């Protein structure tokens, strides 16, 4: 079972250190810093809903500076093929410009 967990980081905490700690947690498949209502988005996989809950509540939430926001459980997913565009990984074209008015 797959789930996405929104993580909020307490002010003054070292976000990079928290991301690295989360990545080392059993069941975590991906952890990335995001812009939006959360600071970090984590993808976890577990045997069942209880296992996913244990990963979130016992492993991730025990990391200093972490506050779990929402946990979104995946009920259906489809893997799409990777895009074939030849954009270098360091290209600014990968990230669209965001402007606020």
Describe the protein's architecture and organization.
21% of the residues lie in helices and 28% in strands. By secondary structure, it is an alpha+beta fold. It has a single domain, classed as Lrp/AsnC effector binding domain/regulation of amino acid metabolism (RAM) domain (Alpha-Beta Plaits, 2-Layer Sandwich). It has a 4-stranded antiparallel β-sheet, with helices on one face. It is globular. The chain starts with a strand and ends in a 28-residue tail after the last strand.
Summarize this structure briefly.
The chain is an alpha+beta fold. The protein has two helices and four strands. The radius of gyration is 15 Å and the shape is globular.
Features:
101 residues; alpha+beta; Alpha-Beta Plaits; 2 helices
What topology does this entry show?
Layout lengths: L1 E8 L5 H9 L4 E6 L6 E6 L3 H12 L5 E8 L28
Antiparallel strand pairs: 1-3, 1-4, 2-3
